[in-house]
Design goal:
The structure is a homodimer. Chain A starts with a helix and ends with a helix. Chain A is globular, with a radius of gyration of 21 Å. In chain A, strands 1-2 form a two-stranded antiparallel ribbon. Chain A has 16 helices and 2 strands. Chain A is mainly α. Chains A and B meet through helix 3, helix 5, helix 6 and helix 7 of A and helix 3, helix 5, helix 6 and helix 7 of B.
Chain lengths: 344, 344
């Protein structure tokens, strides 16, 4: 955890602990073998970025409170409510489910420096565990009534997972499509990644306020941060060190999934370099992944993608800037900076 | 479709057509490749047993209406409401999702006489399509408010899928466990199969009446029918002809999943036959599945399992018998008989 994320986590520390507790309570089973799998997958729980987005958005959108210095009021009480905790737990569970199923799609062996479920227990257990997590996410979510404005949290979450699945299906059908456009790439990463971070911020805000403006500003922030996050993830798949990142790398190359640096490279690199990249992507040689990484890492295509991510972060910060200043919005700003600064 | 099921379908024909329409409308995507997969999976839609259970239970639980002969009333109007249609569509979608993921777990190539998604498009597409179906099931379900008595349909459906996943996980962890007991077998088939048919009947009844007695009687019927259905499915995996059944057979044997006939055989057959069964289950010979089927098919273990199913059907009919007679309950009785009579 970077200092920035650490500071944000401090602001919402007790609530994150409550999310942890609810996560464990929701998944507890009377079957020991189910608990064993759940415990293992619990180790993948890393930065809790998505619950943090819900909680910090909830704080940032909450109506201004009297100063805590004023005596005789309950200003010290958090504006975060039980629905915030539930929603934060639901999105974390949805995210964990997508990780478990993603690792099957990617044949990944390593996740957060531990063995993946598919690697340890086979694809069968991984399919089922992902289903179990998503089922419990909806189950937990159905414990919530609509918010006071009648907007339905369950409907929004289910809509979000619909779109995530479409994004993954689009990515899957475009494997080994060397003509993938930037436009389709952005459509894919919006659907598979950014809509969930957008929804996190929207849910947190919705549970705090009925002011449409604040909800939309935070949703925009969440969307832009999610897009930038995925671009950086795709850069790390090419340039990162597996030791630092802690998960299988080169899987985009291995699975024939073009990402922003590769798309740029195929359009703008010298012709012989473009031809070499296609040859390597199509080859079956054992060192092809490493050779693709060595070909693209030093190129301007990485710079191009990184600049894209930085621009998105600037847009995210601009959206945040339309809200009243608060420690929560400062923490969200720090989280945005962290997205492009991270090496893992 | 047998005559019995055909008669039942006639009674609820227009509503089943509405389920078909809602199923297609809910899954329609702006992405052509998603629609193509959904169309393919639509071909697996067979008997629509689960929507029929919802609709017929809805009719069977509805308060008695004035006779249709009486003039000047709207007795001809069906007591089935839009929530019945939605619930029937949701359970069909949940069922389709489990079929798609089951076919991955079973490495099955054939389903309803067509190629499975995993066989045609790979495991990746099958994982994602199953996720897409389950996501849309919850999405559609979240369009429903609670019923007039405040019972939450979404919560019950999510609880049901939680338990289904636990059943599948328990089955998976017990693969190649030759000491599996009847008790664990029944726990597995209740969780993976019978809870969904139980929930179908419960949902249909809940949407029609607040009378707890009728709801519980229909839930009992659904549970017993589901247990019997699974036992017959497990018998067909051993004794059925793939041509008649229309899906890959022998998968229980191939995957080391003990079913009721095998459990009985391992406990009651002559010692040399028991030893032979274990040898075959553990062997890697290409004809082992056929040899297991030939070993068990003529044995009393099949009779034993079939009698178990018949007893469950008798219990289902007894539960039905506590309700007022109606054409809907007659149709449910015929469906129960069909479960043990079927050869596919």
């Amino acid at each position: 955890m970077t200092p920035a994320v650490h500071a944000a986590a401090n602001l919402i520390g007790p609530h994150l602990a409550a999310v942890d507790d609810l996560f464990a309570a929701e998944l507890r089973s009377d079957l020991p073998h189910v608990n064993a799998l759940v415990t293992h997958v619990g180790r993948f729980r890393g930065k809790m970025l998505r619950p943090m987005l819900v909680l910090l958005s909830g704080l940032a959108a909450a109506p201004a409170r009297p100063s805590p210095e004023e005596p005789d009021n309950h200003a010290a009480a958090s504006p975060l409510s039980p629905p915030h905790i539930t929603l934060a737990t639901v999105v974390e569970m949805v995210h964990m489910a997508t990780l478990v199923h993603d690792d099957i799609l990617d044949d990944a062996d390593v996740r957060r420096k531990g063995a993946t479920i598919n690697h340890l227990h086979g694809n069968e257990a991984a399919v089922l565990l992902g289903d179990f997590l998503i089922s419990h996410a909806y189950h937990l979510c159905s414990s919530l009534r609509s918010n006071p404005n009648g907007q339905d949290y369950s409907r929004l979450i289910a809509h979000t997972t619909n779109v995530v699945c479409e994004g993954e299906l689009t990515q899957n059908v475009n494997r080994r499509n060397w003509k993938l456009t930037e436009q389709t790439y952005f459509d894919i990463i919006y659907r598979k990644t950014a809509i969930l971070t957008e929804t996190c911020c929207r849910l947190g805000a919705m549970a705090s306020t009925s002011h449409r403006f604040a909800v939309e500003a935070l949703a925009t922030y969440g969307k832009k941060v999610g897009l930038a996050f995925q671009i950086v993830d795709d850069i790390l798949d090419i340039c990162g060190s597996q030791k630092a990142v802690g998960k299988s790398l080169g899987t985009d190359i291995e699975k024939g999934k073009l990402t922003l640096p590769m798309i740029h490279f195929l359009k703008h690199a010298a012709p012989q370099h473009r031809a070499l990249l296609i040859d390597l992507l199509e080859s079956a040689e054992h060192d092809r992944i490493e050779r693709v990484r060595q070909l693209i890492s030093p190129s301007s295509s990485i710079t191009y993608a990184r600049r894209h991510a930085e621009n998105l972060i600037a847009e995210a910060l601009a959206a945040l800037g339309t809200l009243p200043a608060s420690s929560a919005s400062a923490a969200l700003a720090e989280m945005a900076h962290f997205v492009t600064a991270r090496d893992r």
